[in-house]
Amino acid sequence: MHFARTPPPTSSLPASFSSTTNMPSMESKQVLEVHSTLIELESACSNLRTLLQKSTDLETNLTNMDTRFDVLEETLTNTSRTIAPLQSLAIANKALDTRINRAVSPAFNLLESFKLAESLQEKLLKISSKLPMKKPISKRLKYLIKYVECVDQLNDAIDSISRDCEPATQKLQEVVEFLSRTKATDHYRTRRLKETLVTLKALYETEVDAMRYEGLLDEALLSLQDEYESILQQLKHKNIGDQLQADEGTEVEEISDLGSELEIDVLKRIAETLARNDCLDICIDIFVKVRYTRAAKALMRLNPEYLRNYTPEEIDEMEWESLETAITLWIQHFELAVKTVFVSEKKLCNQVLADLMDGTIWAECFIKIADKIMAVFFRFGEGVTRSSREPQKLFKLLDMFVSLEKLKSDFTNVFEGILSKPESHESLLKDAILNVMEALERNIDSKKLRYKDKVLLQIFSMNTYWYIYMRIRNTELAKLIGEQVLKKNFKTVAEESAYLYQRQAWRPIVRLIEDESEHPNNETTGAVVRGKMEAFMKAFNEYLQRHRSSYNIPDADLREQIRESTVNFVVPAYDRFYNAHLSVLQARSSSFLPPDSIEELLGQIFGLTNPNVTSKYTTRHRSFKDRTAAGENAPSAQGSTNVIKTFRRMNSDD
């Protein structure tokens, strides 16, 4: 420790020392050093006294501070005991605050949704009031898009209310239960909160459903349904009759869209909005009803008055010329329906409804529209087949079948990818054709009952079925319904009718000249022979006249086959009888014709006009006479009857 030096006072110096000023200098220095040391010691002593005093004061202060700390500690202990209940209450209040916040947040969201729904309702009313005044149509459609968007937003807001209301009431229920259990607030506030909870539950159970099903949203959906129907009605088929006036080979113009891009967009948005609001069935019903009506009206512009008469009785009352014209128009109109109307309606269905139900709805709607239109056309076709008219009508009806066959590729294009099974479009066309052809068969069978002449009945049946078979075979229509089905239903029936024709027309005549014994020359008399020959010639001439007047076979190939079969059936039997009784016949009369003349007459009634043509039988007939002259046995009558049955096998391979 350093002490400050202070100069010694002058009065403290000894008198003797001051009087020694004249002492030598060495002694003076020693005196000064001693004096300086004394001064330093005095200063150090003073500082020590000061330090000791301060230490004493510090000790006193520390003692006082310790006393104060003890008092403070006692105070803090007492304060802690006082604050402890308040701390528990604070923790409870914090837990209550957390629960209240959890309950209030959904409630706040719910209030915001209510406010949004209210503002959207006001906006919807404003747009709705201006919508009827919007012109031209493009502006109105754009404004209608805003209307649809507002409806979607209102629906989302109501969905949000419906979604948030139940969680909000659940959270409030939890708070009420917590307050009731913990007594965290007074009874008055708890009761008010319970009343609020009851009110909110009632609001959820009644008002939310009312907002969705009885409020402005429901009115807006009804308005959208009307707009949807109105726009669909405005989409018309244009220039529907141009295809009928176009010459064959003229390139057909590409089918245009029924609606503009804006119209399609509006229809699509409305359909999606209706579907989201549980109105999909209504949307489909409106679409199918309106578009079928529009498609039907487009076809009605072609004036298909014949479609009004579709019952067999009504068709029977039509003149043949009118019916023939009606069938021609039917073919043209049905082709137009498939190639233009169906194509346009299919495209519209896809454009408007493709996004609904994963793309399954639009195809169903198109099938319903097309099915109704086809039903009208096929109803007329079936009426024609069930009516009872002259045979020429059946040939005209066959043209209807051929037209259906030509439309096969168009049916494929229209219905491809729509029906549930592959190639269902072919099944649809095949079923339609088979139904009409079955009706045609029933019609033919009913006409056969009108014939009292059994031979004429078989000729009619043979001609009709053979004509149908020859007209359809080797065509796409035959491939569609199946060659085997075609042969079974038409060719086989024609062959059976031809066989029955020969049995009923020529079998009775041949029996007139059949001998009952093996040696007719020895056991029969001339009168019996001439009687049989006269009966044969009378019946033969009668059938010749009938064939010339009414027994007509138009098809040349069929007529030639019938001629050959008839010649091979009749002439050999006549030849045997004629040659067996030649002496008796020549002795009494020369009016009996030789076999060659019989064959020539048969050739004439079946249209054989070239007399130089040598028939197969003529060759066989002459060789038979040669064999008879040589002593060979003549062929039996039973052998000739087998030739008749060969007709059913003559054309088994086409």
UniProtKB/TrEMBL annotation:
Pfam families, sorted: Exo70_C, Exo70_N
Gene Ontology CC, one term: exocyst
Sequence segments annotated as region (Disordered): 1-24
Keywords on record: Exocytosis, Protein transport, Transport
Compositional bias annotation for Pro residues: 1-11
Gene Ontology terms, MF aspect: phosphatidylinositol-4,5-bisphosphate binding
InterPro entries: Cullin_repeat-like_dom_sf (IPR016159), Exo70 (IPR004140), Exo70_C (IPR046364)
UniProt entry tagged with the keyword Transport: yes
KW Cytoplasm (keyword) present: no
Function as written in the Swiss-Prot or TrEMBL entry: Component of the exocyst complex.
Similarity field: Belongs to the EXO70 family.
PANTHER family referenced in this protein's UniProt entry, alphabetically: EXOCYST COMPLEX COMPONENT EXO70I, EXOCYST COMPLEX PROTEIN EXO70
Protein name, entry field: Exocyst subunit Exo70 family protein
Organism: Coptis chinensis
